[in-house]
Amino acid sequence: MNVxxxxxxxxxxxxxxxxxxxxxxxxxxxxxxxxxxxxxxxSIGALAKVAKFxxxxxxxxxxxxxxxxxxxxxxxxxxxxxxxxxxELDEKDKSVVFGMIETMLTKKKFKDFFNxxxxxx
Length: 121
Known about the structure:
This protein is mainly alpha-helical.
């Protein structure tokens, strides 16, 4: 696939029209159609706008493999699957996630301690 075909696939998957993307990059819809058909190329600046609009990096847009990323929802995953997904994060993001979990667990321990010891007085 070329970049225009990638953009067309992502645009269709996300439910946008050619006119919406043409307006975004500042061109007439007929000229934009030529981009999706491989007859014209977008400038780097226009590609950057499209990537940002689709919430993707330029690399993801250019090397798109046909699968539009879907939002990850952890609630419907097993604990093992949740941990596997967390383990795929880079070290900085893992640290943030585990820091949040530690904070919540500490808060629960203090709440339990208060409920068991102080509130009984």
